[in-house]
Amino acid sequence: MMRSIGFLVNPVAGMGGAVGLAGTDGKADEAIRRGAVPRAADRALQALSPLRGEEIRWYTSAAPMGRDVLASAGIERCTVLHHPATPTTAADTRAACRAFLEAGVDLILFCGGDGTARDVLDAVGREVPILGIPAGVKMYSAVFAVNPAAAADLIRRAGEIPCRESEVMDVDEEAYRSGRLTTHLYGYARVPFIPERIQGGKQVFEQQDEERAKDDIAAFISEVMLPEMLYIIGAGSTTARIMERLGLVPTLLGVDVVRNGEILVRNADERTLLALLDKHPRAKVILSPIGAQGFVLGRGNQQISPAVLRKTGLRNLIVVATPGKLAATPLLYVDSGDPDLDREVGDSLQVISGYRIAQRKRVIHPD
């Protein structure tokens, strides 16, 4: 039996990440002013291209919310049910989803971030399964495939695999931009589920033992830091503790750059990082995976782009996490936006989890 899928793209999703805006909701114009380029269409194209020739009846919104991406993927036979405004808005996402629902689709496939997921849920609730192609900045909701290749695999097998009740999270972006992570459960959606193909929701770890572990990690990292070396330090409370150990004030949810014990740049964007690496080519990147989700790259740290990582070299990637976080995070993922770079990471990463203590964690590449 031929499946039917409603497909839409939020064309501005994720634009704020590389330019240090920590999100794009209400900030698309500012992201463009800072030099951001659209990335959602490219992410959607990675998911759709392997589906060319599949027995799927496609419904979509007109360009730039879907029809153009289907055409680029070589999928010409589709029905346009919605024509968005210029510029597109959240109302267009909801209207397109309602049109898909009326057409009786088996699945709604969307490309965006947490804000797009909330708009889709508002329109369809639990009446039809949904699946997200990750293209936002943070993506704490558990309705996204771990990367575009995983989305393609899930679509091929939709109807044959079970659906899971998965969390859609509401993230306060204004609070996030000011360094406070404020989330709450927005609702539940039905999502086709295969382990290692769908990301989990973020968990936050604040137990007393975790705080001691952060201190131990910070003590070790501060001892092994080299003079004249550039340190690009990503978001999170564990990496923030390293900054505090150095006597520096961190940008909790941004990327800071440190050299010789001093901050060179706070809340750096991709362009700034690339310029600094031209001047200081000896550099290391310190990151912590998102708790329970396991993403080291591609969630909340798009400033540390494939171009940045190729300049630093993957051998200079340092991953840190507390034992509690690692116990709840059985697998690690990388979704930098460059599948070749992701594969170069290899099948495992060493994670520093205490003072001179490390664990090796498996890295999954669902492509």
TrEMBL record:
GO terms for biological process: NADP+ biosynthetic process. InterPro entries: AcoX-like, ATP-NAD_kinase_N, NAD/diacylglycerol_kinase_sf, NADK, Put_ATP-NAD_kin. Coiled coil: none annotated. GO terms for molecular function: NAD+ kinase activity. The keyword NAD does not apply. It comes from the Archaea. Keywords: Kinase, Transferase. PANTHER family: ACETOIN CATABOLISM PROTEIN X, ATP-NAD KINASE-RELATED. This is ATP-NAD kinase family protein. It comes from Methanoculleus receptaculi.
